[in-house]
Amino acid sequence: MPITLIRIATRESALALWQANYVKDRLQQAHPNLQIELLPMTSRGDRVLDIPLTKVGGKGLFVKELEMAMLEGRADIAVHSMKDVPMEFPEGLHLPIICEREDPRDAFVSNHYASFDELPQGAVVGTSSLRRQCQLLARRPDLQVKFLRGNVNTRLAKLDAGEYDAIILAAAGLLRLEMRERIRSFLSTNVLLPAGGQGAVGIEARHDSELEALLTPLHCAETAARLSAERALVKRLNGGCQVPIGCYAELEGDSLWLRGLVGSPDGKTLIHAECRGPADNGEALGTQLAEQLLADGAGKILEAI
Ligand SMILES: NCc1[nH]cc(CCC(=O)O)c1CC(=O)O
To answer: Where is the Porphobilinogen deaminase C-terminal domain (predicted)?
Structure first.
């Protein structure tokens, strides 16, 4: 029996729903006769959080629930923000598709200041990402970094309530939610190296060659090559989205240029490294750069977290 229906398990946050609908629309374009349904899933308790606080077997509760739905046959695929996707998959599941990357940069969002450089002495900046915190403090030790969690709309509401002079968010989330006007400026990757996978969406699925063939038109080989290097670096450093690791790969013809960074949360120590290598072996490149960061002292910083 050929596949006639694909069910997409998704979280219910605005961003998760946007991403699921994006995959749905693109799949529908590629296969007009295919039936595609969303299966929105409410998580216990912490559904308002973008970064799940509760970890189950090393994974966020959300990811676990989406995976259960696929393993139990209630859903066929799940759509993830690649920067939040774990490195390991349960038996029977894998991540065959990586879609074209949106803008990978972080965005400066403020109601009073046009750019990071305009922030006055001692300004309060909202982020709960150690990666952002360490890089911003390295540049501006006078700033006060203040805890900020929640989904994109929650974070913006807290900014608007006056709790922060500015907040830092992934540009991709704001662009997808049609909130480009909220972005006062983009932070260059030289100032703020993104998280591995930032801005890219991936599709997790059961092992099934027919399903995979249907999904193939959504795959972006260039994005996948870049992310293979970034994810290998993060994997070698045992990092998730809660650690102060930045990494970013760009294609230069057949070659990848990979930059990586590990920083102490106070921004006093930043370890940078970069390397170039063949684009068809990003994994080796990522591992190699992670080794270099470790040789330069990254291990000590990461152990202290
Ligand atoms: N960790 C939260 C998260 N996961 C994915 C995105 C959106 C951007 C993306 O897809 O990389 C965000 C929001 C943010 O970091 O501001």
So the answer is: 226-294
> Which of 81, 85, 101, 243 for mutating ligand 1's site (highest number of atoms within 8 Å of CB)?
81
Question: In angstroms, what is the span from residue 118 Cα to ligand 1's centroid?
Answer: 25
Atom of ligand 1 nearest to the CA of 168: 16
pLDDT tens digits for range 3-41: 999 999 999 999 999 999 999 999 999 999 999 999 999
| Catalytic annotation, residues | 84
**Residues 6 or more apart whose Cβ sits within 8 Å of residue 57:** 64
ipTM value for the complex: 0.95
Q: What is the DSSP letter of 120?
A: P
Quick: pLDDT tens for 119-177: 999 999 999 999 999 999 999 999 999 999 999 999 999 999 999 999 999 999 999 99
Task: Please list every protein residue whose CB sits less than 6 Å from any atom of ligand 1.
Answer: 15, 50-51, 81, 83-84, 169-170, 172-173, 198-199, 241
Q: Which of 80, 102, 132, 198 to mutate to test the pocket of ligand 1 (most atoms within 8 A of CB)?
A: 198
- Rounded CA-CA distance 231/182 in Å is 29
pLDDT one-digit tens code per residue, 89-130: 999 999 999 999 999 999 999 999 999 999 999 999 999 999
pLDDT band at 88 (very low <50, low <70, confident <90, very high): confident
Domains of the chain in start order, with CATH, are 5-99+200-219 (3.40.190.10), 106-187 (3.40.190.10), 231-303 (3.30.160.40)
Q: What is the dihedral of CA 66, 68, 69, 73, to 10 degrees?
A: 140
Query: Is 120 exposed, middle or buried (CB count within 10 Å of its CB: 0-12, 13-18, 19+)?
Result: exposed
Q: Is the whole-model pTM more than 0.95?
A: no
Distance 173 CA to ligand 1 centre (A): 6
Nearest CA to ligand 1 atom 3: 50
